[in-house]
Structures are given as structure tokens and as C-alpha cells.
Task: inverse folding
DNA sequence: TTGTAAGCGTTATCAC
DNA sequence: GTGATAACGCTTACAA
């Protein structure tokens, strides 16, 4: 390249000091500086101190990039998520960040902004800068995922069932979760249900629907309607009218975001919850407990998902065997947004 | 180092292909491969195609680390925040991530977990892996900040007034914001106020207090009590009793998180809002609008803060002059959690 | 238009 | 114990 033709050992004013400059200043070789910096082997105390002094004088910090190239590892993991606006993924991010930090790893975030097409390239690009990948791609077709995974290994996939794919995965048992919610609502006497569905290609949405189908099959007396809604808070807000025009006494929102949006709109419309309709969410985001009424939901260990993801990656990075796929079974959180079925259905009949 | 003594041009099975392997495969020099990869200059079409074929065959992707070392830039920015759990910072993260992505930059996150002591080292460490830094350090003493900033330049500081410090900064005018809230509450007839204060060392908390002092000084007839509370939703929840035992008819929470927590608890206690007390927040996080009652708050352009931060950094990275410090003036969002002062103060007297 | 070779800043091997 | 020196994989003057 031959960029700087001046003496490379000149302690540039603004340019960060290099190991060579420290070596010159301390009157030793670069190798020795490197040893001191890494607390390696036995360097004569006198020399070591001389090096440390030079380091202080020059304000030297080793170049991470150069180390990465030499060591062949970056000490960085990437997290690819479909939407950073979702509190669920924010918690996963926190979990990964905190757990990785303990092992001296940093986290690079990549938000695909729900753009399924870009997700593949984003993951590959992110993986190139890092030693490993945490991939959250609920909408990516399984075929594409299959092609992608070997390219970005080591990677752990979060939040979707990989089925036969032999890759490390941490998933939520959404089917079981939604069945748990249904069981709760059934026990309260509800028979007419409305499911506010999430994005249709979403794997977890499919799982929820399958769960509901099973319940429907085994409970002849009930009806479960489905309306495609979305995954965002605004979607829930906008769904209030659909909810009211439907005769259901219990609404299962795709997630807490949708549920909170719905709750907000219902409050504005002065529709009593759970007096008129019961509402459930999914995920148990931080706000669920503080919503009014507090939201009955399925608790998903969001931060734990992130922490476990890092734990598995760490294992892989150390040359360990891929873990088995792990399923988290959500836990029912009964709060105040669900209650007994009202005496009569429809706009204020009984009472 | 001399790690791999075997022929370096062997297309290793699992190891990622290098530029040298591509060069060999295509029968050209590495320089030519580099030119093709970067769409450089005029490479003979025939040769270029041969290179591209080799790239495809070998599944070659250039090493980002090696490029970074050679180019002297990583195409990465770091964001240092005190607490990723706060929706405010999550939005800033989104803003930075989205804006930086447009220019081909990725974002590294570092969460200091409210640990003020570690923040300095964290920032330095993060900066080393990146080309620039977005720093959110509301509690860092100004002296330490002064020492730190030159070391991590280029950096833009977010969310605090740097005063005389000549560094790029994006701040919120918290004093003006809280005064706006007070003006609103005063217009509703309130005279007894309670401020639920945030972390005491927090710069923005100080600014809020100064704003309140000014109002107090210019309005002899009113009283403004202060209770140190915190910045988290749980803190607001826990503050409900203190709020009720205080005679105030209007409560100004440190931020929306605190306000939502308070609202949640007040609802549980069946305390009418704003019937008994009015409540305000600060930040206008996503959930503020959907709280029950919807929260009157000061809107802070959170994502915009992130976007602008990137815009300024980009300018600096391109060799531009540091921008002047920018202040965002929050905008009052009147919603349903504030209302006229109740007829009588205390546990249900009038009515 | 293409190749040669130096250089980015580190680490690690191997003599001394 | 310490110092040359060759990598790591890429970019880019400069020569051909």
C-alpha cells in the first residue's frame, strides 16, 4: 500500500500508537510488547515495566482489528432480528449482550426491518464480521433457512421450530402456549373465541393456529374465529372494531403488543374488559403486568432465550458438539384481563 | 505465525476461501480479484467473468477483518447505553441502526448496565472496534466525560447537555419540557405537585429539577414536592403509596416508564386518574399512548435522536467539521391522564 | 489492462 | 528471556 512514507516509528500526534512505536520507545522488540500486553510467559520484570511505561506514555491500546486478523477471531457475535421495535427481541438482545459480555464478547445488531428478502444477505454479511450468529428469522422459508445455516455456522436459531434441521435451536412451544391460554379461557366458561392472527408466513403464527385447531377438534361445542391482524401495537388498536362486531367473548391476541393495542382502544371505547370480552396476549413483555387491566398472557423467557443462545454459541466456539434443540414451554400468567364469560353475548343484553 | 504449512492455495473444505485461492482458481493475481470484487477500474470482461466464476465456485466472501485492517476502517459504529431495558434507548438504537445501515454501517451495542464505573472502559473498548461512537452516559461526571471524549473521537454524545464542552451533542431540553408539563397542569388549576425524581446523579434529572425550581420561583401560590423514585417501571409502581399520602393533585413522573408503573398500581388501587390525581410522564414511549388512561407526556424524538447521531457521525467521518450542539425541544402530548384539579383534596371529600 | 510487492498491526514460531 | 520473521487476508501505488 505504501501510504505513509515517513518513519513509521514516529509517535504521531493524533494517530493511535502502534505496537511498533511502543517497542521502539521501550527499546524492545514488538514480540516482547505483545507478550507484556497479553501477560504472557516470563518477561524480565525490568523490561516489562519499561514496556508498560511506554504504553502509558503513548496511550497505547492494541488494535482490535489487527488482533482479530492475526487470531482469526473477532470476539463479536451478531444478532439478526426481524424488528427491533418488538420488546420481545429487545429482551433477547439484552440477554445475549449481557451473557456475551461476561465472556468478553460484544454484540452486533442487525435489524432486517421485516424485510424477508434481505434477511439472508444480512445474516451472511453480519456473520462475516463476527465469530457466530444468533438468528431470529420467523418468516424465512425453511428451504432458504436450510441453505443459509451451513454458510453462517456456528449459528443458533431462535424462536422457531427447525423440525428435522439439525441445527442448534432455541424455540418456544407456541402450540402448547396457546393451548394453555385456551384451557384457561375454557375453564372460565368461554365458548366463542377470536384469534387475532399475526403475520401469515410467520412460523410461530402457524404453530399457534395448529394449537388452536387441536383444541377446536377436541371441543365440539366451541367456535374459534380467526382474523389476520399483525404483530404490532397499532394492529391491535385497529382490530378493536373487528373484535366488537364478532360475537366472541374471549380474544386471543397474537402477542402482547397486539393485546395492549387492543386494550387501549377498548378502554377508549369504554368496553369493559373482562366484563364484555376477555383478552389474552403472548410473550409477557414488561408492560403486560402494568397494562390496565393487567394482561393475562403466556410468559416466554425472553432474556433467558438470549442468554441460552450465547451459552450454546460459546460451547460451539470452544469446539463443543451442537446442543440438542431446546424448547421452552411458556408459562400461563393469569392476570386481570380475563374473567368469566359474561351472562349474555352482544351489546349489553343481560344485566 | 506460520500456522498452516500446507499449500495456501488449497481450496480448504470448511475454511472460508481466501482471495489467494480465488486468484489461483481464476489464474490471475490477487490484485485483479480485488479489483473485480470492488468493481474497480477496467478489468477485461473475459478475465472479470473468470474471476466471478471462481468466486462462485469457491463461495468466496472477502474477509471483513482483513479489509478493515487494510482500509483502516471497520464500517461499524458503537452505541453505548446505560440500560437497554429502557424503551427510550431502544428507540435510539433503532434510529442509529436504521440510519447507519443505509450507509453500509453496522452497529455494535454496549450496555453498561447502569454501571457508571465501567462506562469509561466500555466506551474505549467499544470505540476500538469501531470507527465512531454514540455515547449515552447520563450519569458520568462531567470531568470524566471531558477526559474521555478526546480518546473516543469521533463521538457524539446523546441526551445530556455538555455545557462548555465543545463536542458534538444531541440533547433534550428537559428543563423546558418539564416546564411545559407544569404549564399544562397549572392551566388545569393544579397547585400542589409531586415530582417523582429519577436517579440523583442523572444529568437530565438535574435539568428537570432546575426547570421545576424556576416554575416554583415564579408561581408563589404553588407547592412542588419531590420524592426520589427511580427510572424504572417498578419504581413507579412502588411509588403509588407515596403519591397517595402526599396531598398533590398532580404527579410528574421522571419518565414514562415510571408513569406507567404508577398508573398500573393506581388502577389496582382503584384510584381514579385523573379524577383523583393527574399523572404525567416524559419521553413519549410507544406505550404511553396505549396506557389506560393514555398518558399525557412530553414527546422526545427518540428514533430521530439516533438518526441524527448517525448523520453527525457520518459528517465527521467524512472529515467534516463537528456540528454545533443540537437541542431538541420536547413537544407536549396532552392525553387522558391529566385533567382539572379535583374539587377537594384528600380521600374522597367532595363529590 | 494486469502483476508485483509493500503495508495495515497484531500474534506466534523458532532460533539465539 | 528476547528478537527476527513469517504469517493473517486484503488493498493499492507503481511497474510492466
Result:
Amino acid at each position: 500500500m505504501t501510504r505513509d512514507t515517513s518513519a513509521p516509528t514516529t509517535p504521531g500526534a493524533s494517530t493511535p500508537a502502534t505496537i511498533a512505536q511502543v517497542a521502539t520507545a521501550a527499546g524492545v522488540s514488538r514480540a516482547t510488547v505483545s507478550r507484556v500486553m497479553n501477560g504472557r510467559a516470563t518477561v524480565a520484570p525490568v523490561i516489562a515495566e519499561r514496556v508498560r511505561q511506554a504504553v502509558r506514555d503513548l496511550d497505547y491500546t492494541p488494535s482490535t482489528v489487527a488482533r482479530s486478523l492475526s487470531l482469526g477471531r473477532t470476539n463479536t457475535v451478531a444478532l439478526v432480528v426481524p424488528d427491533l421495535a418488538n420488546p420481545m427481541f429487545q429482551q433477547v438482545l439484552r440477554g445475549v449482550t449481557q451473557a456475551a459480555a461476561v465472556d468478553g464478547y460484544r454484540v452486533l445488531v442487525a435489524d432486517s426491518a421485516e424485510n424477508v428478502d434481505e434477511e439472508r444477505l444480512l445474516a451472511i454479511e453480519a456473520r462475516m464480521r463476527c465469530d457466530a450468529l444468533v438468528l431470529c428469522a420467523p418468516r424465512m422459508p425453511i428451504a432458504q433457512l436450510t441453505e443459509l445455516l451451513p454458510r453462517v455456522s456456528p449459528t443458533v436459531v431462535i424462536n422457531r421450530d427447525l423440525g428435522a434441521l439439525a441445527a442448534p435451536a432455541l424455540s418456544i412451544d407456541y402450540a402448547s402456549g396457546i393451548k394453555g391460554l385456551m384451557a384457561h379461557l375454557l375453564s372460565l366458561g368461554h365458548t366463542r373465541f377470536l384469534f387475532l392472527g399475526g403475520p401469515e408466513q410467520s412460523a410461530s403464527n402457524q404453530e399457534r393456529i395448529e394449537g388452536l385447531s387441536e383444541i377446536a377438534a377436541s371441543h365440539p361445542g366451541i367456535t374459534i374465529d380467526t382474523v389476520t391482524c399483525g404483530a404490532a401495537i397499532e394492529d391491535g388498536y385497529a382490530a378493536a372494531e373487528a373484535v366488537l362486531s364478532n360475537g366472541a367473548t374471549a380474544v386471543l391476541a397474537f402477542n402482547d403488543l397486539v393485546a395492549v393495542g387492543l386494550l387501549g382502544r377498548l378502554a377508549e371505547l369504554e368496553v369493559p374488559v373482562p366484563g364484555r370480552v376477555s383478552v389474552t396476549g403472548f410473550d409477557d413483555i414488561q408492560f403486560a403486568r402494568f397494562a390496565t387491566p393487567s394482561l393475562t398472557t403466556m410468559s416466554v423467557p425472553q432474556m433467558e432465550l438470549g442468554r441460552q443462545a450465547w451459552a450454546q454459541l460459546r460451547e460451539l466456539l470452544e469446539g463443543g458438539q451442537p446442543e440438542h434443540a431446546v424448547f421452552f414451554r411458556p408459562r400461563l400468567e393469569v392476570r386481570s384481563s380475563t374473567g368469566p364469560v359474561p351472562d349474555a353475548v352482544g351489546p349489553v343484553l343481560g344485566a
Observations:
- Residues 87-102 of chain A form the longest helix (16 residues).
- Chain A has 13 helices and twelve strands.
